[in-house]
Specification:
alpha/beta, five-stranded parallel beta sheet, about 10% strand, globular
Length: about 325
């Protein structure tokens, strides 16, 4: 009976939180959909305050993981009509590709896309200002810089990139050791679990034409649709035979490819896969990746830290759970 009472208490609390959130979002919806009312910064602040307060209230409940799952479902059943107006958080919640951080969501984050729906635009704006989406943009920017730097280091006689130099000292600080250059060889860069192709395209855009043809990217992903998207992104930048797209179970790479056809790699990037692997699988993948490197090559793995400030939003609104 005690367990039942505790469950009744938190369910009542979630119901109150969901109803309050729905009421506040409805008030904003009415205001922004009024043709006579111009959109104001106050609406953005109101949506942010409503979401922040709802998340803080949910966190204060201190629910166990199995309870949080039920509470998340309950929250969406109450406030979902308004929350669904935000394309980004709805994409994470509904998981049409089977997982939250799919290639379409990552591409939308990188390109800072917002919904055309008035309320949805405010909710998407709230999403885009979170720390985690900014971290995704940061890692994609770093990846593009490292790809470009690896090509330049392998072919130092190439003309400088057409960049604005905004990354300044970052290039000098992170420049990888270059393998011995050979006029006929290409720089091979593997991205394990990131198949938007946007990092590669950004690097190509900042390289002179003479250097672009020396890059040979290898994109690996679970999702064939992600690889198709990446191929479309890179079309026109590189010949088709220069881009390798591999659909495979990424967690099984160490067991499946003791000898890998695409080795050796000058640069291997693991942008977000470790967030979904346990310690043993993550360690095996990193060790396997290191073995695929050319002499002087580099492997970079990214992972969210446990103090991720966007974690409550990701888990409560997106049902997006990582292994920290």
């Amino acid at each position: 009976m005690e367990v039942v009472c505790r469950e009744a208490v938190w369910r009542q609390a979630v119901q109150r939180i969901g109803q309050a959130l729905a009421q506040r979002l409805e008030a904003v919806r009415q205001r922004v959909e009024d043709p006579s009312a111009a959109e104001q910064d106050a609406d953005e602040a109101t949506v942010a305050a409503a979401m922040d307060e709802a998340l803080a209230g949910l966190e204060r409940l201190g629910l166990a993981p199995q309870q949080r799952a039920g509470a998340t479902q309950m929250l969406w059943s109450i406030a979902g009509a308004w929350l669904r107006r935000g394309w980004l958080q709805t994409r994470a919640w509904t998981k049409p590709r089977g997982y939250a951080g799919d290639y379409e969501l990552l591409a939308a984050i990188y390109q800072r896309q917002l919904s055309d729906d008035p309320l949805g635009r405010l909710l998407d704006g709230y999403f885009q200002t979170q720390a985690a989406p900014q971290a995704v943009r940061n890692r994609m920017l770093l990846a593009s810089q490292w790809i470009r730097q690896t090509v330049q280091a392998a072919f130092p006689s190439s003309s400088p990139p057409r960049g604005d130099g905004a990354d300044g000292g970052l290039q000098a600080e992170h420049r990888p050791e270059a393998p011995t250059a050979c006029p006929a060889r290409r720089v091979k860069v593997a991205l394990i679990g990131s198949a938007t192709g946007l990092e590669v395209r950004q690097a190509l855009a900042e390289l002179p034409a003479s250097s672009r043809q020396r890059l040979e990217p290898v994109l690996l992903d679970y999702d064939p649709a992600a690889l198709e998207y990446a191929a479309a992104v890179l079309r026109g930048w590189l010949p088709c035979e220069q881009v390798h797209a591999v659909a495979t179970n990424l967690a099984r790479l160490p067991r499946r490819y003791a000898v890998w056809d695409h080795a050796p790699c000058d640069l291997m990037l693991i942008p977000g896969l470790l967030d979904y692997l346990d310690d043993a699988a993550a360690a095996a993948l990193v060790a396997w990746g290191y073995e695929q490197l050319a002499p002087g090559g580099r492997l970079v793995a990214f992972q969210f830290a446990p103090h991720n400030p966007t974690r409550p939003y990701m888990e409560w609104i997106g049902d997006w759970r990582l292994i920290y």
